[in-house]
Amino acid sequence: MEISQFQISDYLDSNEMIAAYLNTVLTEGDEQDLILAIGHIAKSIGMSKIAAQTGMSRPSLYKALSEGAKPQFGTIMKVLRAIGGDIQIAPQPAQPNRP
């Protein structure tokens, strides 16, 4: 029996699933987890499509969203917009030592 490797991108098949996945990574992960998650989402949508929308080549896109990559913030923003994402800032409750 052959066992296939689990690919999260195979399950990111709706905007709701993509948003839930990305929000979970933002809440529980670190910056590398976020980069990889954006890569998984881009793969689920189609790297060729994302490359065309961002003006990046597919190899550059794969490299920017691979493990250990340190993409520029502008690259992350381009890809987020291409996958239909947005960044919003929500205020956190005041901490005792902060005004």
Automatic annotation (TrEMBL):
Transmembrane segments: none annotated. GO terms for molecular function: DNA binding. InterPro entries: HI1420, Lambda_DNA-bd_dom_sf. It holds the Pfam family dnstrm_HI1420. PANTHER family: SSL7038 PROTEIN (PTHR40275). This is Putative addiction module antidote protein.
